[in-house]
Fold each of these.
Amino acid sequence: MIDVLNSIIVLLNFIIIPGISYGSQLALGALGVTFVYAILRFANFAHGEIMSFGAMITILFTWFFQSQNIGLGILPTALLALPVGIIATIILCIISDKFVFQYYRYQKSVPVVLAMVSIGVMFVINAIIRIIIGTETIKFSDGQKFIMKAKQFKVMTGLNEGLALKSSQVITILITILLLTFTFWFLQKTKTGKSMRAFSDNEDLALLSGINPDRVVFTTWIIVGVLACVAGTLYGLDKSYKPIIYLNLVLPIFASAIVGGIGSPFGAVVGGYIIAFSEIMVTYAYKKFFVYLLPSSIEPTGLVQLLSTDYKFAVSFSILVIVLLIRPSGIFKGRVL
Amino acid sequence: MKFERYEWLAITIMISLFIFVGFIQGWSVSLVILNMCIISAIMTMGVNISWGYAGVINFGVMGFLAMGGLAAVLVSYPPIAESWQAGGRGLGISFALLVLLVIAVMYINKTIIQKRNRYILNSLIIFFGILIIRHFYLNATHNIEDVNPAIAGFLGGLGLPIIFSWIVGGLFAAGVAFVIGKVALGLRSDYLAIVTLGISEIVVSVLKHEEWLSRGVKNVMGLKRPVPYEIDLQNADWFINLVAYLNSSKLNNIIDLSDRQQVLNNLIIDGSGIFVKLSYAILFLIVMLIIFYFANKAQLSPWGRMMRAIRDNETAANAMGKDVVKQHLIIFVIGAAIVGVAGAMLVTLDGLFTPSGYRPLRFTFIIWIMVIVGGSGNNLGAIFGGFVIWFSWIEAAPLTTFIINQFTAGLEPTNALKLHLLNSVPYFRYLFMGLILLLILRYRPKGIIPEKVRHS
């Protein structure tokens, strides 16, 4: 019995909790990508950099608050700086729309051209970030690092295995729940949200019924800005902030959005968790888990690892390719690609 | 073929840029940039063939380049007998098993019609097949990686002249492109972009971590050159005579004999570097011109016309009886093959293979900027884009330093802002690239040298 508990704790500690927090970050990112796709109808390659930008502004203000000795006690100061980051990210999104994307929208350019344009935007934001903050790895989480340490847990329960709970993970999960609830409430219940859904469903019909497209686009960028900044900051808080990482993060995010069914917000969230869990589960070495469950005579000798962690990244893409082959519209019927 | 006047202008600009740099920063710098420009131009032509001719997007440039690089290693590196002894058999067995597995899956797909049974059987056979293959494979690779890990630890190559790898690199890239194309070409263009981008990352991560193949992140160094080494040139009589002859007027002015010898030695050292780079440039230029010639021929042929028809209206082309899927696959593979050739040339030029150096920003997106800026659908435009963008990529740093110094001239040299800006000079090139791309897309969406409208 104790062995079974131990093995469950192992799974919780190494797969489920990291999976949920990483999945939440991906889900928030994918939700942003999906919004841009549903309303503005292009694949936004700049999304990773927008996330990075939000995180950067948050870091800058975290430093500022820290220097002023303003803090939140056991909570990271970054939470205090997050609203500033969100506002800055929204402004960035709206500026990039006004000066860049709007023109192509009015021209009714094909999606590929807009994707190219977003690559240009990606380069520019990338440069701005590097010029401002450099390329170093930055750790900006402060406050209490662990809610529960592995050792505490062991003492508390008397089990062999510890369960560590980082505060950044809990914060990530809580904020994600909050933000997702709000987003879905907004989409389902408010008038603007409904007009956004109508616009995404059928643009011509929406225009005919008097929905102002500029207003819809404006709201979309606000939501995208909030989601991107929060996702970027949470990712930086959980791991550490490194400008280069966000470019690599774009691909799992796209994978999540497409796997879930691009254009479908609910699908994006589910896709985020699917990608996160499969990345972690496929590359986790299950030896410890089996040691508890199996009798010692047939204990595994190897690591019982499906793929080495080097291929973490490849996993999300293999899933993407498989999903596109079997069910091109994604799991939750988004647009047919 | 005939060039228009503005095309001559573009060619003149390209040539004069290098002469300009040659006089300002030295011929060695100019030739280094020129070599990379030529390679970039070849990559750009590869992308341009699939995107410009047929509208097939290819964001997997990085992966195909890496395949070309792998070819350079596998062709030119001398074989390592010990590694083959240690793991060759195991690898052979696992490869044979893999082929068997694929055949088995294909057989099942053909014979069993009931969908549910097919899925169950397939997943069972793939699961157990992979378990068995893994056993042989992991043992073999482990053994190979244990052979003298500091300098070897991989199978080595064939030990042939590296110049063959340019063709092999094309074939490797074409092979990978064929698989990708089979899987992904049915997708809409922006998804194809994401999928190819992702698969290229997978290719690079395989190259990074399969150490038995190409040493992975430990890199392969000291690949043989197709051109002479500087040190050999410096000791070769004909080269010394050549340098002496070329600089005879300058040397004759120096009366003191030891001084003259000193000057000659310096000239020989400089000259050998330039000679090596020049030989590379000539080799690359030949490849570029061959590809350019054939690309143009193809574009003007009935096949090229069909490609344009498919690009401009897929449905209509399909209705006219053109096999769109097949042609898309063909052109995707051709484009990738040319990129692969460029990848092999890149590794040849560097003399080393560093899988971790393949980053999408540098090897996929910049190439795409070259295509868009140069003018998609026009091969000369592609070359021009490759030259201009690579040139500005390199020359952005000196230019930025100059601009920052101008703007902050009033500030003290220890001013924090000025120091910060000067420290981040390398990042301004991304800003330039992004701005160039945005401006071109906005004001000249067909590129600097647009595709000629042909009514033939």
Amino acid sequence: MHLYPLKLVTIVGETVIMEDIADEGLKLGATGYTLSEVIGEGSRSARTVASTIGAKTMKLEFVVPMHVAEAILTHVSHEYFEHYACIAWLADVQVVRGQQYIK
Amino acid sequence: MTLSIVAALPLWAVVTGEQLSRMLESLERNLLTPIPLCFVLGIVCTRIHGGIKIPKELYLSIAIFLLMSIGFVGGHELAHEYQMHGVSTIWKPALATLFLGCLTPLTSFVVLRYIGGMSIADSAGIAAHYGSTSAVTYAVANSFVEQTNHPANSFLPTLVTILECPGIAIALVLGAGLSSRERAAKATPERRHVRESKLYEALYEVITGQSIMLMAGLLVIGFISTMFMDDQAFQPFYEFFQSKGMLFRGALCIFLLEMGLVAGERLGDLVKVGPFLVAFGILMPLVHGFLGAYFGHAAGLNLGGCTVLAAIVASASYIAAPPAVRLTLPEANPTYSITAALAITFPFNIALGIPIYYEMAKWLGAT
């Protein structure tokens, strides 16, 4: 079985910006994403209650080549880090059928 | 503190002993009923780390039921009103509501910016919350006036729908416009374009959001079905949705319990927002409530109608406004607006505000 070395970009932040970031990630070269609701607590505020009043947190994941990962992380840190509760990180992953994540 | 006392003086100056005892009686009548008591239970439970947990799906389902119910019954009553009087009794209250929807974000902004000295973004963000309305406050106020045997005019749900949008739109446009110069210094043309597109996106999301779509949609459905269905076929739908029914009141109790749990968590943030915002969260609703009762009375609403209009004008949005403000004014601190709307104004209106608006409407001569 052939495994492709790719990058996993994970962004955790406020619900209100996550769909925008997902769309922007696609424009920057990602071929897809996974978005899920999570519960957690951060330095800006506690988000432990999953209610409908805007306190929800979401996790967004892209599997992409290095240059796309860099573009996404640069864009997110430039546009969102200043005013929104948001954290982003990068990890190495080995992906089955990895060719479909490369445009 | 001094500010709160000075602002409260004119209100107390016009209250006589007899009115005060009547007001206390109304407060007691309101407070010692299941709906506010469930809210209190929620707060107490959170503060003592109790074990109540409302499943999110249930909470969301109840929110959908309440909004559908308000819209459907409103559409049904509106159809009756239309069949009897045409639009002659509705247009004045509708215009008064639209005017109040445009006025309240401006009064809130001026007070926050020039008396409170808050930043443009924070002032506009909080003003957007106070310019819009809370459908749950409407439901509680409506239950209160039904309990006092002074039911509100039938078309009040239409007024809730009218009040939902303009306040948010005005405050966001005001905030985005006034702070554009501050942003211009550090924003590239590309970023400015992104910010402008987010304003339109936020306004579109408010207008097409769940509250408006369900309330306005069911209002139209209630109206059409009342006009074209025969009474017997219509009855089961009415019984399911009606606000005097056990289903609606029970659902409201569960919803208020969840609201109490959330508000209880936010109580800790009162220290962060400071005394000015606490005073604002109590006094601004009183001023807006008085304006609501005054213009409602001038537009011909009955005692229940004036009370409910006052309550919805005095209420602050905590569902539609927060995401719109986050998108458009990201530099505004959400702790200020959500704490003020949810942990100060909402409990104040539920516990004390509604009976006070009722007495205000009586004092203005509404019957």
